[in-house]
From TrEMBL:
Residues 4-61 form the HTH lysR-type domain. It comes from the Bacteria. Belongs to the LysR transcriptional regulatory family. Transmembrane segments: none annotated. It holds the Pfam family HTH_1. This is LysR substrate-binding domain-containing protein. Coiled coil: none annotated. Keywords: DNA-binding, Transcription, Transcription regulation.
Length: 306
């Protein structure tokens, strides 16, 4: 029977994710030669070739992919073993590292941390602001325990590495200059703003969300200005330079800006959390997830409840 080496399987798994020996070495804090040697030894141990040349790079063989398919179940079970050992050793004590996108930090993570100080003072939360791509790299590398992102940027449900958990449906409101003709109109619909100049990012998820919401309302938005930060976007709205969709979690009160709801057909963005498969069972991680869910539930469709 083959003597399996978990560390070597982790190296093979990382190579599949990172694509090159050099990138794998950087992720695992090894030298490229050490990565190559470990994978060569693993191939000898199990008796099948794991890598094949592809120009100046290497790619995984079908045998390597077969091995990793079975290894995912092993990694998941090891995560569960770690979780049970943590429960046995520490009970309600533990440290949880959270990677979260910028607007989720003040709206979800900080209130959850405050609540945990009362309900579970032994659980320490370390927060790292990170957008989706970085957050999921950190999660895969074991450098954070939870990653928060928009659902559109999260790994697919079929990704064997992660468990995905829904947190919040965050409505999008429209920001109008205080003097706009429709600032106080009854029954405002997104389609009523089809002729406006819009302010949103030049590319990326927020551009996609704005364009998608407007197109669902029957028009293509005319982009008057491009900005990625909410402070800049709302400053331009206040100056009468255009209108913008703003997630309720991110809204900042400004005297010259009127935030309007868009009725039952308003667009929303979905916020999710992800943990490594099996890692969500760790008691401290579970505590943090509960606090995040309770924070989200205290938000009535994205608005703090009285």
């Amino acid at each position: 029977m083959v003597e399996w080496d978990i560390r070597k399987l982790q190296i093979l798994r990382t190579l599949r994710e990172r694509g090159t020996v050099t990138a794998t070495a950087e992720a695992l804090r090894m030298t490229p030669s050490a990565v190559s040697q470990q994978l060569t030894n693993l191939a000898k141990q199990i008796g099948v070739p794991l890598l094949e040349a592809q120009g100046r790079r290497v790619r995984l063989t079908d045998a390597a992919r077969l091995v990793l398919r079975h290894a995912e179940a092993v990694f998941e079970q090891l995560e569960r073993a770690d979780a049970e050992l943590a429960a046995h050793r520490h009970g309600e004590l533990g440290e949880v590292r959270v990677g979260a996108f910028s607007t989720a930090v003040p709206a979800l993570v900080v209130p959850a941390v405050r609540a945990l100080r009362e309900s579970a003072p032994g659980v320490v939360v370390r927060v790292r602001e990170a957008e989706a791509a970085e957050a999921y790299e950190l999660l895969a590398a074991g450098e954070v325990d939870l990653a928060l992102s928009l659902a559109a940027q999260a790994p697919t449900v079929g990704d064997a590495r992660f468990t995905r958990l829904e947190l919040l449906a965050d409505p999008l409101d429209v920001a109008l200059p205080a003097g706009h003709d429709l600032a106080h109109a009854r029954g405002l619909r997104l389609a009523d703003l089809a002729g406006e100049e819009w302010i949103f990012g030049g590319s990326g998820p927020w551009s996609d969300i704005t364009r998608g919401a407007c197109e669902a309302a029957g028009f293509s938005p005319s982009q008057g200005h491009a900005a990625a930060g909410w402070t800049a976007i709302l400053a331009m709205v206040e100056a009468g330079m255009g209108v913008a969709l703003v997630p309720r979690m991110a809204a900042v009160t400004r005297d010259g800006v009127v935030m309007r709801e868009l009725g039952e057909q308003r667009p929303v963005r979905h916020v999710v959390a992800a943990a490594r498969k099996g890692g969500e069972d760790a008691p401290a991680v579970g505590r943090v997830l509960t606090a995040l869910r309770e924070t989200a539930s205290r938000t009535h469709e994205g608005r703090p409840m009285p």
